[in-house]
């Protein structure tokens, strides 16, 4: 059974940094693309990033481009989202999701999802 568990969320001041982790089990990570998504209070789900199975392709939302970086360590079955220069509008629940297809990540249509981790950016 595929499982994804996010961690690393918390409260951070504007301009600060956080690194989220997505630990996966039940499948071979290097066969899966991973997406990071977020849902802010009162808003719909937004795709933050996609990273292909071997990490050779990445895609970022314009709202986070240049500030967020997704990476992966397939040997550790973990994918990361490094978030720098955080803004109050980055406040949201962040989710990771997996699919064998990178294109389905870009289409916001991944098959397996984690439970999410809360990120709050506030002074």
Structural notes for this entry:
This protein is globular. It is 4% helix and 49% strand. The mean pLDDT is 96. A hairpin with a 5-residue loop joins strand 4 and strand 5 (45-51). The chain has one helix spanning 102-106; strands spanning 3-7, 10-12, 18-25, 33-39, 45-51, 58-60, 68-73, 78-83, 92-99, 112-113, 117-121. The strands form 2 sheets. Strands 2, 4, 5, 6, 9, 10 and 11 form a 7-stranded mixed sheet that branches. By secondary structure, it is mainly beta. The longest helix is centred in the C-terminal third of the chain and has 5 residues, at 102-106.
Low-confidence stretches: none
Give the strand tally. 11
Mean pLDDT: 96
**How much of the residues is beta strand, in percent?**
over 45%
Distance between the termini: 40 Å
Report the total helices: 1
Q: What is the element string, with H for helices and E for strands?
A: EEEEEEEEEHEE
Radius of gyration over all CA atoms, rounded: 13 Å
Q: Tell me about the biggest sheet? A: 7 strands, mixed
How would you describe the shape?
globular
Provide the structure class. Answer: mainly beta
Summary tags:
single chain, 123 residues, mainly beta, seven-stranded mixed β-sheet, four-stranded antiparallel β-sheet, 1 helix, 11 strands, globular
Topology readout:
Elements: E1 3-7, E2 10-12, E3 18-25, E4 33-39, E5 45-51, E6 58-60, E7 68-73, E8 78-83, E9 92-99, H1 102-106, E10 112-113, E11 117-121
Parallel strand pairs: 2-11
Antiparallel strand pairs: 1-3, 3-8, 4-5, 4-9, 5-6, 7-8, 9-10, 9-11
